[in-house]
Amino acid sequence: MYPLSHRFEVDLYHESDFVLHLNPRYDEGSGYVVHNTYQNNVWGKEETKSQTPFPRGQLFALQILVTLSSYKISAHGKPFSEYKQCMPFSDVDRVYVKGMVELNLVAFQYLAPHHAAPPGSFTVPYKSIIRGGVQPGKLFIIQGVILDNRMEIFLRHKTGIAFYYSPRFEENMVVCNSYEDGMWGEQEQSELVLFKRGEPMQVDVHTHDFINPSVFLVK
C-alpha cells in the first residue's frame, strides 16, 4: 500500500452487484474498514470496524474465508472481522481491487476438509490421527459448545506441539502458542470476541504458506 493512500477497496461482485465490498479508509485516526453489500442499485447497511490492520506504506496480506453464512476477514494471518452474507456467494464471478495499492499476489483456493469424523457426540479429551500429517492448505474444522471456562486445541507431533489454541473465558482472551524442545514459545494473546460460553461454535484452523509454511490461520 502506498504511503499517501487514503483508501482502497476489494469487491467480490456479480454483474452490477457487490456481494462483498471491503473498504479500508484512512480519513481519520488509525483508520477503519467498511463492510457492505450493493444490490439492485442500493447499498446495504454499512458495517465498520475501527483501527485498520493495513498500515499505509507497508506490505499487507488480506485473506477472505467464505463460510456458509459469512465472510471471515483476516490480516497477516490474524482474524479481524466477520461479515454476514446478504447475497449468495455462488453468484460471485469477479473480483475487483481499486485504490492506491500495488498487488503482488491474488490467489483463490477451495478448502475442502481432508478428513471428517462422523457427526455426533465425542468423548473429551478427543484424540485423532491426522492422515498425511499437517501440510500447507489443510483445513481443520471443530464444532461444538464450550461448557467450561476454557477449551484447548492441540496439533501435536512426536516431540512437541506445533500449534496450541485456547479460548479462555475466565481471562477473556484467546491464547496461541507452540511447544518445542521442551519449552513453550512466545505466547500470543487476543481478545475473546468470537465465542460465547454455552453457545454453538466453530473453529476453522487453516494451515497455509502465504507467508510462512508454519503459519496457522484460525477463524
From TrEMBL:
<protein>
    <recommendedName>
        <fullName>Galectin</fullName>
    </recommendedName>
</protein>
<dbReference type="Pfam" id="PF00337">
    <property type="entry name" value="Gal-bind_lectin"/>
</dbReference>
<feature type="domain" description="Galectin">
    <location>
        <begin position="126"/>
        <end position="219"/>
    </location>
</feature>
<dbReference type="GO" id="GO:0030246">
    <property type="term" value="F:carbohydrate binding"/>
</dbReference>
<dbReference type="InterPro" id="IPR001079">
    <property type="entry name" value="Galectin_CRD"/>
</dbReference>
<keyword id="KW-0430">Lectin</keyword>
<dbReference type="InterPro" id="IPR044156">
    <property type="entry name" value="Galectin-like"/>
</dbReference>
<feature type="domain" description="Galectin">
    <location>
        <begin position="1"/>
        <end position="109"/>
    </location>
</feature>
